[in-house]
């Protein structure tokens, strides 16, 4: 599984190098906490990934942080920045998980960042009429959904970081 994740990340990096993407400081992406600048989006999404995947673990998501709530491995109210690009923070977060769980958390974080960059790369000129009849693109914590016209059903494959599901099964959403 780790080899599969590594191959996927390398392919994504090659694709990102081959296309012209905007600077991340100019990228804004949508998720449950709103429309956020790329760096803030990445931290919020990564914290939420932990919360969604491991709701019964020691840490709880709060904005761009994970907070120790039960005083187990970390003292109560310890704030850990949900930054998967920092060895310091990744090691702290992964110390609450086993190896497979840590890989799944990092995969979810990476998928969120990829989604954000794809949203920015595929962004069209702003048209207020467009959003009157379309639900905007968003990262929902498990998948990346593009702009979707009203009264439409769309689906995506279950992400690899979710356990106990058939990876070929589709997630469906109906936009009303």
From TrEMBL:
Q: Among its keywords, does the record have Phosphoprotein?
A: no
A Gene Ontology cellular-component term:
membrane
Q: Which organism is it from?
A: Capitella teleta
Keyword annotations for this protein, in alphabetical order, are: Signal
Coiled coil (residue ranges): none
Keyword Plastid assigned to the entry: answer is: no
Q: Where does the signal peptide begin and end?
A: 1-18
Annotated Gene Ontology MF terms? G protein-coupled receptor activity
Q: Where is the G-protein coupled receptors family 2 profile domain?
A: 115-176
Write the protein's name: G-protein coupled receptors family 2 profile 1 domain-containing protein
Source organism, top-level taxon: Eukaryota
């Amino acid at each position: 599984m780790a080899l599969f994740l590594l191959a996927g990340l390398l392919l994504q990096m090659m694709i990102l190098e081959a296309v012209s993407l905007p600077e991340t400081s100019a990228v804004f992406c949508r998720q449950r906490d709103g429309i956020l600048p790329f760096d803030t989006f990445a931290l919020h999404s990564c914290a939420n990934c932990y919360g969604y995947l491991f709701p019964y673990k020691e840490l709880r998501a709060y904005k761009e942080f994970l907070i120790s709530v039960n005083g187990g491995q970390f003292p109560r109210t310890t704030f850990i920045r949900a930054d998967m690009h920092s060895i310091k923070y990744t090691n702290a977060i992964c110390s609450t998980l086993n190896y497979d769980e840590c890989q799944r958390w990092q995969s979810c974080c990476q998928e969120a960042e990829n989604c954000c960059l794809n949203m920015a790369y595929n962004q069209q000129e702003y048209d207020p009429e467009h959003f009157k009849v379309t639900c905007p693109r968003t990262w929902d914590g498990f998948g990346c959904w593009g702009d979707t016209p009203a009264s439409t059903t769309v689906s995506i494959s279950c992400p690899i970081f979710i356990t106990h599901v058939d990876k070929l099964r589709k997630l469906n959403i109906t936009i009303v």
